[in-house]
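Please, structure for the following, as tokens.
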Amino acid sequence: MTTLEERKSSLARLLANQRFAVLSTQTEDGIHSCLVAFSANASLRTLLLCTPKATRKYTNLQGNPNVTLLVHNSSNQGGDITQAMAVSITGSAREVDDADRQASLDLFLSKHPHMAEFARTPSVAMIEVKIKRFDMVTDFQDVAILYEKDLD
């Protein structure tokens, strides 16, 4: 049986090693999903991403801050069925304010230094997702749910 500490460790490794997630936002018209670069803080309580303000995802986030991100380590191979891990992350997004922008930018760029010019552009928003829940799937059907209280 996998312990909570083992699950948290696996989750931390996945979020540290994977560079991209699928972000889903929602409006009255439906769900919009897109690929985003992300960075997670060490406590696993927040994720950071950047987006131009002139995008559908930014507009959607302004209207409804509830989001889901999917992070996985599959490699499109048959063995992924038992070896890959996928995590659906549910949270609430907000634009990082000017006072906290530099610290958030530093954390994001520590993982994505190649995105510095893009991330520093004034028309690009730094978005923080406060994580409420992780739905972890390993070994094809082993599902575990971790809530923010489980991270203490």
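The domain at 4-151 is CATH 2.30.110.10 (Pnp Oxidase; Chain A). The mean pLDDT is 93.
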